[in-house]
Amino acid sequence: MFRYAAVLLLLSWPASAEVHLDYTFSQWEKLQDDDRTAYIARFIDTLRTMAATEPAQLAARHYSQCIMRSRLTARQLANFLREYVRARPEMQGSSVQHAINDYLNALCGRPFD
């Protein structure tokens, strides 16, 4: 279900929106809601499809299954991530990748614990 939502979001993402995978949290937070949501959907989809090593594949599967079980939409995940980082000033200068990894560890637990 999440995969289909991600595809729909990516297809509806404005063509003029810059594809940018290394946003800082503050850059990402300034995006429009739909762009933030599409970014998170793309990040999660990329996490699942681009994991090259076995440990990375196991971690990606762990997080994907956790997100599926939680029934979070990409929009909800983006909103929760935003609130999570807003409550942690030390993370606000970090990359979105770092922030989402930290959030997923808090939501799902670490994959190898």
Describe this structure in words.
- The protein has one domain.
- The protein contains six helices and no strands.
- It has helices at residues 2-12, 25-29, 33-50, 54-70, 74-86, 96-108.
- Helix 1 (2-12) crosses helix 3 (33-50), helix 3 (33-50) packs across helix 5 and helix 4 (54-70) packs across helix 6 (96-108).
- The longest helix has 18 residues, at 33-50.
- It starts with a helix and ends in a 5-residue tail after the last helix.
Keywords:
113 residues, 6 helices
- Biggest sheet overview: none
Taking the alpha carbons of the first and last residues, their distance comes to: 27 Å
Share in β-strands? under 5%
Number of domains: 1
**On the 0-100 scale, what is the average pLDDT?**
81
Q: Percentage of helical residues? A: 55-70%
- The count of helical stretches stands at 6
Radius of gyration from the alpha-carbon trace, in angstroms: 13 Å
Oligomeric grouping of the chains: single chain
* Structural category: mainly alpha
Could you list the spans in which at least 5 consecutive residues all have pLDDT below 50?
2-19
- From the spread of the alpha carbons, the general shape counts as globular
SSE blueprint:
Elements: H1 2-12, H2 25-29, H3 33-50, H4 54-70, H5 74-86, H6 96-108
Helix pairs in contact: 1-3, 3-4, 3-5, 4-6
